[in-house]
Amino acid sequence: MASILCSVATRGRYHSTLPMVINATANQTKLPDKLIIFDDNDAPEDMRNNFIYQHLFSILNYKGIKWEWLFADKKGQHHIHQMANAMGYDWVWRVDDDAIPEPNVLKELSVWIDKDVGAIGGSILTLPVNPDTSKVTGKIGLYAFRYKTIFSPKFKKFNIKNNTITQNQSNTQANNKPTSIKQTSKKTGK
User: Fold this and answer.
1) Nearest-10 crossing angle of helices 18-26, 51-62
2) Are 161 and 183 in contact (CB under 8 A)?
3) How far is CA 18 from the centre of its chain?
4) Does the reported pTM lie above 0.85?
5) Which one has a higher pLDDT value, 171 or 120?
6) Is the Cβ–Cβ distance between 74 and 42 less than 8 Å?
7) Residues 5, 91: contact at Cβ < 8 Å?
8) Residue 166: exposed, middle, or buried by beta-carbon count in 10 A (0-12, 13-18, 19+)?
9) Dihedral sign (CA 146, 148, 152, 158)
10) Domains in the chain, ordered, with CATH?
11) What is the pLDDT of residues 30-62, one digit of tens each?
């Protein structure tokens, strides 16, 4: 089985998204062999004294995930990626300090590990940080429909039109009718 290092380069996110990234890493259905936080902050802090991080580190320890906090040389992500690549792991899973992975991401990515594969990547869905809630409709998935095309975990392409997600013709059911998922109203369920 291939060894996997989870590498997170961080700068300026101690008290925003970094704790969520660490928590999401600890809650993967396939755990990495090690998590390394590369701290590239101008004024680094010892997060072992922070209550939230103490809790996160105890979760990593409990789940058997080795972890390390390295103070980087402030040369940027390129140098951090080179450091991670040279640490002796078969694969490096790079996670941005503001991208919170779903629980099955590492498991789904690792399915593609093969001796003939050099890199594997996933998609990142960026939701609005400050959505305008003054015109809330009560419909489920309101912000998901801002995107023109999405991909399912099985790499089937879907198109979005008129608040309906439709599978491409090449991935249709036997009766040649595309499958679809429509938004539903919170109140009526229709």
Assistant:
1) 20
2) no
3) 12
4) no
5) 120
6) yes
7) yes
8) middle
9) positive
10) 4-110 (3.90.550.10), 125-190 (no CATH)
11) 999 999 999 999 999 999 999 999 999 999 999
Which amino acid appears at position 131 of this protein? Answer: P
91: β partners: 4
At residue 173's C-alpha, the angle toward residues 190 and 108, to 5°, is: 90
Phi, psi angle pair for 79, to nearest 5°? -70, -35
- CA torsion angle for 98, 24, 26, 1 (degrees, to 10)? -90
User: pLDDT grade, residue 136 (50/70/90)?
Assistant: low
Task: Specify the pLDDT at position 166.
Answer: 52
Amino acid letter at 27? N
DSSP state of 74: S
Location of structure tokens 């090449």: 170
